[in-house]
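Reagents: none. Just compute today. Type II toxin-antitoxin system PemK/MazF family toxin.
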Amino acid sequence: MRRGGKVSKHLSKEEIILNKKKSIIQLNNLLESYISRDDKLRKADLISKWIKDYVNYLNFEEKFNPKRNIAYKRGNIVKVNLGFNLGAELGGVHYAVVIDNNNKHSSDTITILPMSSLKDNTKVYERDLLIGSEFYNLVNSKHELRLKNVRAQYDKLKALTPSLHALQKLSYSDDYSLEEREHLITDLENFQSELFKQLGDLNAEIDILEKNKAEIDMMKTGSIVKLEQIRTISKMRIWIPKTTQDPLYDISLSKPTMDKINSKLMELFIFSNNS
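Predicted 3D structure written out:
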C-alpha cells in the first residue's frame, strides 16, 4: 500500500500492533513534554485537535463522494482545514482561492492558494500578493444578509411559542371529548417538538454565522494570497462551501485580481525561455 510516498514491505499483524504501540507512546511522550511547558501548551492543543480531526477524516475517507459537494471553479473562495504542518507551512483553518483551470466535479482533490489577513504588524513578502479588501467586501455583504435572514426566521418561529402554550392549556378543556383531547394533545406535542427542533437548528446556524462574522471582520484591513503556499488538497478538507446554501457559495475573486495571481504564479514557478 502506498501512503505518504513510501511503499512498505508486507508486515505481520504483530509487527503492525507493535508499531502502533510505539507510535502512540512516542506521541504521548511528546504531548506530555509540551504540556509541561507554558510556551508549548498551545502547540500541544493544536496537535491534539488535528489528530482528532485527522482520525475523523480517515473514518470518513471511504464514504467521501466529491460529487456530493458543489463543483468548484477557478477563482472561487473556499474555507479549508490545512491541519497541523511543519515549520513555515501554513496550517489550521484558512480561506483559500481555487486555482484549478478545470476541476472535475468527480475529482477527489483541488489545488488552492491559502489566504491570510493583513494585520498591523503583518509583513507582505515578495512571494505574497496583497488583494486589499476585495475578499472582505465580497463576503461581508452576503454574510450579513444571510445572518439577518436567519435571525428573522428565528424570531418569527419564536413568536409562535406563546400561542402554542395557550393552545396546550385549551386542549385540556371540558369542551372536548376525551378522544378529541388526546388527538389535540398529540398534535400539539408533535408541533412543539418540530418547532423546538427548528429553533435549535436556527440558533446553531446563528452561532456559526456570528463566529464566521468575527473571522471575516479580521479580513477588513486586507487579505494576502500566499502564493508560495500553493498546494493540492483533498476536497474532504473543505469546510465551506459544500452546498449552494453555504455563505461562501459563488464567491469569486475578480478577473483583474485573478490575472495578477496568474502573472505572479508565472513569475515564481514557470521558467521563461531565457532561463
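The mean pLDDT is 89.
Action item: order primers for follow-up constructs.
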